């Protein structure tokens, strides 16, 4: 598919649509070849067989990972919020005025950093 079509919002083709059936089957076959060559199917089979034997352990690992990442995001959110309180807030106009003022002072100096009289 073309990027423009994806951005423009063309409807996603249905896998049972006869116009896209051949393309769908080609893409599925390519995905299967990739998974077989990279041994992803074996890895997934081993993970699933372990998860079937150790259901509670698998759920603890998965949900622990999700909850841990969520907690990490909350901690970073709080840390960045507290850090932003220490920085003086300035509007864009104030920042531009300061930059213009600094550039005007910079131009008044000679090559050695001394102000010219």
Summarize the structure in short.
The protein is mainly α and 117 residues long. It is built from 5 helices and no strands.
Provide tags for this entry.
single chain, 117 residues, mainly alpha, 2 domains, 5 helices, 72% helix, extended
Give the arrangement of secondary structure elements.
Blueprint: H1 3-8, H2 21-37, H3 40-53, H4 55-85, H5 92-107
Helix pairs in contact: 3-4
Keywords: Membrane, Transmembrane, Transmembrane helix
Low-confidence stretches: none
Tell me, briefly, the overall form.
extended
Could you give the count of β-strands? 0
Mean pLDDT: 85
Number of helices: 5
- Secondary-structure-derived class: mainly alpha
Order of helices and strands: HHHHH
How many whole angstroms does the radius of gyration measure? 29 Å
Helix fraction by DSSP (H/I, runs of at least 4): over 70%
Largest sheet: none
Number of domains: 2
How far apart lie the N and C ends? Answer: 66 Å
Beta content comes to under 5%
Keywords: Membrane, Transmembrane, Transmembrane helix
Transmembrane segments: 56-75
Please describe what this structure looks like.
- There is one protein chain.
- By secondary structure, this protein is an all-alpha fold.
- The protein has 2 domains: 1-53, no CATH class; 62-109.
- It contains 5 helices and no strands.
- The chain has helices at 3-8, 21-37, 40-53, 55-85, 92-107.
- Helix 3 crosses helix 4.
- The longest helix is centred in the middle third of the chain and has 31 residues, at 55-85.
- The protein is extended and about 75 Å long.
- The mean pLDDT is 85.
- Keywords: Membrane, Transmembrane, Transmembrane helix.
- The chain crosses the membrane at residues 56-75.
